[in-house]
Fold this protein.
Amino acid sequence: SADQFPCPAGTYNPNQSGQDENTACIPCDQGKYCPKASINPIPCPSFEVTSPDPYNIGTYADTTGTKSKEECKPCPAGSYCDDNTNGVINPTVCNPGTYSKSNWMKCESCIKGHACVNSNTTYEDMLSTPCEAGYYCDQGQTDTKGNGGNNLCVAGSYCPEGTPEMILCPPGTFQIDTGKSSVQDCLPCPVGYYCL
C-alpha cells in the first residue's frame, strides 16, 4: 500500500511491519507517554533545576495510553517521583523527617524549627507542626521535641515554639532551669553579680 498512517497519541509501534492500527499500535506503558507516531514510549518527566532559583519537577502516569507529557500527573504533595529511565507509575511517599510539595521529584529535609513526624508529610503539614516550646528543632526532625527530646533548651537560654536553635538570655539576666520558652524566664542579675 502507498498509504502510511501514524499510530495515534497514546500508542506506539516499535516494529516496521505494522498492518493495522489494532495490532501495530501498542498502548503506551505506565509511567510513560506517547505522542502521535511514537516509536518508543517516553518517560514522564522528572528533573531538577539548580539556578537561578532551585526547583524540581516530578510527574507520573499510573495508567496506560498517556498521550503527552502534559497528561503526566503531578506528583502529589508528601511524595516524590524520580525515575527518568523508566518513568514513575506510583509515587513514593516521603520518609519521616522529610516533606515535599506537589509536583516534586524528591523530598527535602524538614526545615529548622519544625518537625515532619509522619511519612507522607506535605509542606503545609510541616508548617503546622512547629517544635514545642522549651525545645529547639534543627533540620530533618521527626518529633516536636527535637532529636527525641534531646534538644531541650539548656540553662541560660530559652526556646519559643518553632525555634530552630537556643536563644541566649540577654546580658544582665540569667536563668538556671532547662526547657524555658520565653525571654521573661530570664531573671535580672542579682546585686553584687554581673551576668553575660
